[in-house]
């Protein structure tokens, strides 16, 4: 066992060619990668797996991996957040990631458990579609991106979104989850009352 995942050996990452631990969750991620490449038509260089996102909640910080970021025409176009179980609990953090991976709003956010998916408008949170078959293809996403001017995320909005994502992804995580890197308090920050100096 590694963390709370049963390790079944190793596998080769479909996007990068890296050797990864073969876990049930990673098998779902690799199936998603296959889906993105064929039939959805994304190029390997447009799919960024395991993007580290720094989350801050007051003096607490953590690095969390976003499963996939799709970049078209040098713009963030879609974020995909995978997690086992109910996708309803993944929708809000997926929206937060769509507002944290770049200084501008990412138009599409996908929350998925590998079997089902919720496709959300990144700006409004409105449900655009449901099911893996509803994930936009490269051509569809390019049209969405073209129709969506880049909207900057104000710093105060980014701070709120980071707190929301921290609550879901770090505070709500299993203590043995080794995919989250909890960092020491930010330099110069004071810890909660009663913490040693």
What is the fold's blueprint, element by element?
Layout: E1 10-12, E2 19-21, H1 24-37, E3 47-57, E4 60-72, E5 75-82, H2 88-98, E6 108-112, E7 117-121, E8 127-130, H3 138-147, H4 155-171, E9 180-183
Parallel strand pairs: 5-6
Antiparallel strand pairs: 1-2, 3-4, 4-5, 4-9, 6-7, 7-8
Helix pairs in contact: 2-4
Descriptive account of the structure:
- With 197 residues, the chain is α+β, with helices and mostly antiparallel strands.
- The protein has a domain at 48-183: tt1808, chain A, CATH 3.90.1570.
- 26% of the residues lie in helices and 28% in strands.
- The strands form 2 sheets. Strands 3, 4, 5, 6, 7, 8 and 9 form a 7-stranded mixed beta sheet that branches.
- Helix 2 runs antiparallel to helix 4.
- The longest helix is centred in the last third of the chain and has 17 residues, at 155-171.
- The chain is globular and about 40 Å long.
- It starts with 9 loop residues before the first strand and ends in a 14-residue tail after the last strand.
- Structure class: alpha+beta
Stretches where pLDDT is under 50 for at least 5 consecutive residues are 190-197
Straight-line distance between termini: 35 Å
The tally of beta strands, per DSSP, is 9
**CATH architecture label of the domain at 48-183:** Alpha-Beta Complex
Roughly what fraction of the amino acids lie in strands?
A: 25-35%
Tell me, rounded to a whole number, the average pLDDT. Answer: 90
User: Strand count, sense and closure of the main sheet?
Assistant: 7 strands, mixed
Topology order in helix (H) and strand (E) letters: EEHEEEHEEEHHE
CATH topology of the domain at 48-183: tt1808, chain A
Shape: globular
CATH secondary-structure class of the domain at 48-183: Alpha Beta
Oligomer category: single chain
